[in-house]
Request: fold
Amino acid sequence: MSQAELIADELDRALRGQAWHGSSLCELLEGMSLEMATQRPIPAGHNIWELVMHITSWADIARRRITGGRVAPHEGEDWAPAEDMTMERWIAIQSALRQSHENLRDAVLELSDDRLAANAPESENSVAVMLHGVVQHAAYHGGQIALLKKAVVTQHRRAAL
Reply:
């Protein structure tokens, strides 16, 4: 496997499954209700909805950076406000997460080893380091989603007693 293929595989595992660290983003979100996604079991923390939008944004930003697009996040793109919280919008947000990672994966497969070794735009890190960071970012926030999901389920069980 080339380095680009390895990174693309890591992106796919973080999104779809068979990740070394545990559940992938899609596995964590499978069957998740709107209620679960929008609850805030940690009052000052982000909810699952916000985390999914944030993960999506950074996959999009990384793709733009390697395809010559805007380097910096757009206004409100990093942590977009959770608005229009409907089931239809929740389904669309999950679809956007999958699409952002698929688009990034496709762009990565077009990169040569020289391009992967070059600095990412406006960065002292290589493109490869940035892309590995996207995978790490997904795993980090996936862990938060897993914990929030457990907290919401625990709250529901306690309320039912």
